[in-house]
Design goal:
The structure holds three protein chains of three kinds. By secondary structure, chain A is mainly alpha-helical. Chain A has helices at residues 2-32, 39-56, 61-84, 92-114, 139-161, 163-173, 175-180, 185-207, 217-231, 237-257, 263-277, and strands at 129-132, 135-138. A two-stranded antiparallel ribbon of chain A has the order 1-2. In chain B, the strands form two sheets. Chain B has a six-stranded mixed sheet with strand order 6-7-8-3-9-10, with helices on both faces. In chain B, strands 2-1-4-5 form a four-stranded antiparallel sheet, covered by helices on one side. Chain B has helices at 5-25, 30-55, 63-79, 85-107, 112-132, 134-137, 155-175, 180-190, 192-197, 202-228, 238-251, 256-272, 282-297, 301-310, 334-338, 388-395, 418-423, 441-449, 461-474, 490-503, 520-535, 547-553, 571-576, 578-585, and strands at 348-359, 362-373, 377-381, 403-408, 411-412, 426-428, 508-512, 539-543, 556-561, 564-570. The chains are: A mainly alpha, B alpha/beta, C alpha/beta. Chains in contact: A-B, A-C, B-C.
């Protein structure tokens, strides 16, 4: 039972990271109807920025964090301008392929600049964690869960309670009409990309102390986060978050009770099963189309 | 296969034989032979992508995994189990086909992004298995001393075999677009809804495309394993799937020539850029950037770009179709008899009973009954939002009924999917025109004629073509058969859509607001066309707001309001009923 | 003085000349109907005025200022609201949210916009019960009401209405035209594109007729309506939606 609770905590913690990256997916998907296959690379690049500033240069952690987040905002903006914007009037397929190209580019540029050795990033807190009854609560996992919940609340407020959120949604549903109403469409899309890059970056920085910082960390996280968005029903914020936690828990328990080498395969198996049995996700489609 | 294809086949065979002979005889050094071997086997896998992506518009990000299935079947089979090469190759292709079909079945109902994701998942799972199931796959060390068939034991002979396989699969992919299956794939790519309304099983078509793609991947992989005698998991990673995809995109997904060009270039360029590999990652970074640039600046790939410069604009106008009158079999009782007894009961050909369709709490259609009699023009009218189009969509199977039953010729079709209802004899047009826009008018109409259950299908290609031509002639567009859809005006596109439905030889023709968006002269032409169709004895169910048109063509009216039937009967009589006048025409 | 002046406007779609030197003016406070058969260039004219299409040649002046070539956002900020063909209600937003977004050309606070949107339901009482329903669940007529209400939220000096009657049953068409009449009463200037010439000329002060991208005729409704040539050539299908 103790082991079970400990695993559950770890699963929720890692699941929170998937949930954060999944939020980034959902945002960009809702704004552009495109899945950004380079979403995970935002996490990877942010983690490397932390390694450079906090470890290699030895600057204070908060300063490195601020620089990394600013860097991610900039990367999100550049990404929008070079990878998405030129293709905005084409079908989803070219855009999807373009984001895959961007993913390969980002991974290998970091590889060329930094080399293949995995790096270590220390956690934010000096205290490693606290013992709560039978369960040891790692401080970094606690931080991950707290930040995720905070960002989720923020995003819900943004989309459902503000006019800006409604303008973002309107842009995602009909760009030409949004422009006719005076909504600055290009700015809305830019905001979306910058915000999702920052979200991905935060996820990467939070998870880096738990994993190694490596070139592949982004794509691994992103694939699972994507699985989470599908399990949650595409484009659904609450579903993506639940899906993220579900994937984290499944994978932690799978590794503990079934097989460690095949850990990475569990999320995908669950995904394929889910698609076969309940393709509309946990909550089902949000907007149905009338033919 | 039709006669027109024969000269093309001969020319192709000649070129292919020359290339195979060259591969078999000309002595090259190992380096060049390896590059050729890689190019030929990769190109076969890329052909597969041109089917799934180019023809059918679906994505596959796991072609390297299917390639791996073929490669490992040959590798493990010949090296560990001492099985004959040909058997292993066949098993490898079969496994890849089956895996592709299974993967397709699990996700192809969902479309784009899901498919992308699931194929990536499959790719990742396979890589994990290849690396970790060491007892079976030898893990990261890979499989060596892979066997070859006795006849092709030398490297040179095996290269000739690979080139021959390349040529044969290339021919297959080249010819595919003009076959029934290929047309169905293109129809699905252009407009899924219209494809299912034209009687195409969209899901099965996609799964077939996907399985063929995977099968070609397996073939390429099996030959690859034989050619290099060694395979390992890192040769078939996700990045290799992307390489294969990029080859298809760079060359142009719409043609096997494009696939071959793309494959050749992306195998040669890395060789030229070998010096870049001294910095790890640099080469692939450039690769990634190149993918973005290709997508942005060369959307149709190199061959698409070249092809646009040289392709003859349009084929010459065809000789006029034989003056075959369009005489739908539905009205003359032949089809009815074929459907067995009870079919012609009381002359009712389409019967709708207690039909309901709710969208959440919105009762779009709420218990509607009506019967369409054979040979009659029956109109469904009502104020906007009264549920007319929803009724038509439920009748043709685009929506599932919440309650109620639908009978065509006495057969209950309520549970059938849209394409099966087309086979049962329903053919429809759409309010907002849905044509296959990349195809010619004739191809659009041929697809209509090709529906399952049309007796002409067995009569062969020629009969279908002439049926389609006759249908186009009937709507007055026979001379423009070979122009593609976008070159037609809105009104003419509507006529093509009607011709597509007519060519299907339907029992009932369902028209959803055919007059919408037409100007007055086009409306008049439409009126004449409907009169001519009705004169042929075809049963029509029509929805429209143009009361001049409706009063002119319809013998029977069913009036809906707020999802319920408020009147039903002979046209003139219904139009006199006071509640119809107030509900529909407005109080004056 | 004319609120909108169009001079020698030409627009191309690829190689097709959609408009070829169209000139006309609209006076402040008038309702002007732009008539013509399908493909004559009516929608293209509206889309060019609102900035969705850049003209190849010609000048568009709104309140004396040249606006040709500006983007749709800049133009709606000047006070030109475009209610496009097909309603284009955001399917995943509620009716109230749709209407509120109509004020995106201004700088009013969110609370003020909400109050204005609620006030808009007085003009469109039929859609008040659906205020919190998602756009896609509405019928075509209700969507048209939402689209017009959303357009009015921009407080336009010029309202461009593209085929408001398209696909609507006669009784709903009459309701829509009643609203156009009411908007006119309140002093707004309206440019109305319609196939349903009968209804359009009933509410309009002036009509123009486009033919294959050129302005063929202009005049007051009685003159236009009594001209046999015009009835035959352009208004043939007009009695369609009227009473029989």
């Amino acid at each position: 039972m103790d082991f079970f609770l400990q695993l559950l905590f770890t699963g929720v913690g890692i699941g929170a990271v998937y949930a954060l990256v999944a939020l980034g997916f959902v945002l960009i998907f809702r704004a552009t109807n495109v899945v950004n296959f380079a979403q995970g690379e935002f996490s990877m690049v942010a983690a490397y920025l932390m390694v450079v500033f906090a470890v290699d240069l030895g600057w204070p952690y908060w300063l490195a964090f601020a620089i990394a987040i600013a860097g991610m905002a900039l990367l999100g903006a550049i990404f929008n301008l070079l990878v998405y914007y030129p293709l905005r009037n084409r079908s989803y397929l070219p855009v999807l392929i373009s984001t895959i190209g961007a993913s390969i580019f980002l991974m290998n540029t970091v590889l060329a600049l930094y080399g293949p050795q995995p790096q270590v990033l220390p956690g934010w807190f000096d205290t490693p964690g606290i013992q709560l009854g039978p369960v040891y609560l790692d401080s970094q996992y606690l931080l991950i869960i707290a930040v995720t919940l905070g960002l989720v609340a923020f995003q819900y407020w943004l989309f459902e309670r503000t006019l800006l959120g409604k303008k973002l949604q309107a842009t995602s549903q009909d760009k030409e009409m949004a422009a006719l109403l005076g909504i600055p469409v290009a700015a809305m899309i830019m905001i979306t990309f910058v915000y999702s890059a920052v979200l991905g970056g935060i996820a990467g920085i939070l998870v880096a102390p738990v994993l190694f910082v490596s070139i592949q960390m982004g794509s691994t996280i992103a694939l699972k986060a994507f699985a989470a968005t599908i399990i949650g029903g595409f484009g659904d914020v609450a579903g993506a978050i639940l899906g993220g936690f579900a994937i984290g828990i499944i994978e932690t328990f799978g590794a503990a009770y079934i097989s460690v080498p095949f850990k990475d395969a569990f999320a995908f198996l669950v995904l394929i099963l889910f698609l076969a049995l309940r393709p509309q996700g946990i909550f089902g489609e949000r907007v149905a189309e009338k033919a | 296969m039709n006669a027109r294809a024969l000269p093309g086949l001969l020319a192709y065979a000649l070129v292919a034989v020359v290339f195979v002979a060259l591969a078999a005889t000309v002595k090259t050094d190992d380096y060049v032979a390896n590059i050729l071997m890689q190019a030929a086997t990769y190109a076969i896998a890329v052909f597969g992508l041109s089917i799934v992506l180019g023809l059918c518009g679906q994505i596959n990000l796991a072609q390297a995994a299917f390639f791996a299935l073929g490669a490992y079947a040959v590798g493990l089979g010949t090296a560990d189990y001492r099985l004959p090469f040909w058997l292993c190759l066949a098993v490898g292709i079969a496994i890849a086909l089956a895996a592709g079909a299974l993967l397709g079945v699990s996700t192809l109902r969902l479309g784009g992004h899901y498919l992308a994701m699931v194929t990536i998942s499959f790719q990742q799972i396979l890589t994990v298995v290849l690396i970790n199931a060491i007892g079976f796959t030898h893990g990261p060390d890979g499989v060596s001393s892979i066997g070859r068939p006795a006849l092709f034991a030398s490297g040179q002979a095996f290269l000739a075999l690979a080139v021959a396989a390349f040529a044969i699969s290339g021919y297959f992919v080249w010819r595919l677009p003009d076959t029934r299956l290929g047309r169905a794939m293109r129809a699905v790519r252009d407009n899924e809804l219209a494809a299912s309304a034209a009687g195409i099983d969209v899901f099965r078509t996609k799964v077939t495309a996907f399985a063929l793609c995977a099968g070609l991947g397996g073939l390429g992989g099996g030959l690859f394993a034989g050619g290099f005698s060694y395979v390992s998991p890192d040769q078939f990673a996700f990045s290799d799937s992307i390489v294969l995809l990029t080859m298809a995109l760079l060359g142009g997904v719409s043609s096997p020539i494009g696939s071959a060009i793309g494959t050749g270039l992306l195998i040669l360029i890395p060789e030229w850029l070998r010096f870049l590999k001294s910095v790890p990652g640099l080469y692939l970074a450039i690769y990634g950037a190149a993918v973005i640039l290709i997508v942005i600046f060369m959307p149709d790939g190199i061959w698409g770009f070249v092809g646009r410069l040289f392709r003859p604009r349009a084929r010459a106008a065809p000789a006029p179709a034989e003056p075959l009158a369009l005489r739908p079999a539905a009205g003359d009782g032949v089809a009815a008899e074929a459907r067995g007894p009870g079919a012609s009961g009381a002359g009712v050909v389409l019967e709708v009973r207690g039909l309901a369709k709710y969208f959440g709490g919105l009762k779009a259609v709420d218990g509607v009954d009506f019967s369409v009699r054979r040979g009659e023009v029956h109109a469904l009218i009502g104020p906007n939002g009264s549920g007319k189009t929803t009724t038509l969509n439920v009748v043709t199977g685009l929506y599932r009924a919440t309650a109620g039953r639908i009978f065509v010729d006495g057969v209950d079709v309520t549970a059938l999917p849209a394409h099966k209802r087309t086979s049962a004899g329903l053919a429809r047009t759409f309010q907002n025109i849905r044509l296959f826009r990349s195809m010619t008018a004739l191809e659009n109409v041929v697809i209509g004629a090709e529906r399952e259950g049309n007796t002409l299908v067995e009569a062969g290609h020629g009969a279908l073509q002439s049926r389609a031509r006759a249908a186009l002639e009937f709507v007055g567009l026979g001379s423009r058969a070979h122009e593609t859809v976008p070159s037609f005006s809105y009104g003419h596109q509507r006529l093509i859509e009607i011709a597509r439905a007519l060519a299907a030889n339907p029992t009932v023709l369902l028209l959803d607001e055919p007059a919408a968006g037409l100007n007055s002269s086009e409306k008049k032409a439409l009126h004449d066309l409907l009169d001519r169709i009705a004169a042929e004895g075809l049963t029509i169910l029509i929805i429209d707001h143009d009361m001049t048109l409706i009063a002119g063509v319809a013998e029977h009216l069913t009036v809906l309001n707020f999802g319920r039937r408020i009147a039903d009967g002979e046209t003139a009589e219904v139009l006199r009923q006071p509640d119809v006048v107030t509900a529909y025409l407005g109080a004056s | 003085m004319a609120l909108l002046e169009i001079e020698g406007l030409s627009v191309n779609y690829g190689e097709i000349e959609a408009l070829r030197g169209v000139s006309f003016t609209i006076d402040e406070g008038a309702v002007v109907a732009l008539l013509g058969s399908n493909g004559a260039g009516k929608s293209t004219t509206l889309r060019t005025i609102s900035g969705l299409i850049a003209p190849r040649a010609g000048e568009i002046r709104f309140d004396g200022k040249p606006i040709a070539g500006l983007g749709p956002r800049a133009i709606v900020k000047l006070g030109v609201a475009h209610v496009p063909e097909g309603r284009r209600v955001f399917p995943g937003l509620s009716v109230r949210e749709n209407i509120m977004l109509g004020a995106s050309n201004g700088a009013a606070s969110s609370a003020a916009i909400r109050r204005e949107a609620d006030a808009m339901f007085d003009l469109f009482p039929d859609i008040r019960p659906f205020a919190d329903k998602l756009g896609w669940t509405l019928s075509g007529g209700q969507q048209q009401m939402v689209a017009v209400a959303r357009g009015l939220m921009a407080k336009p000096r010029l309202l461009l209405l593209d085929e408001p009657s398209l696909g609507l049953a006669p009784v709903i068409v009459q309701a829509v035209f009643q609203i156009i009449g009411e908007i006119h009463q309140r002093g707004a200037t309206v440019l109305l594109v319609e196939q349903n010439a009968h209804m359009a000329l009933k509410v309009a002060d002036w009509g123009y007729v486009l033919e294959s991208g050129r302005l063929a005729l202009g005049g007051d409704p009685t003159t236009l309506w009594s001209d046999e040539r015009i009835r035959d050539a352009y208004l043939g299908g007009a009695q369609t939606a009227g009473r029989r």
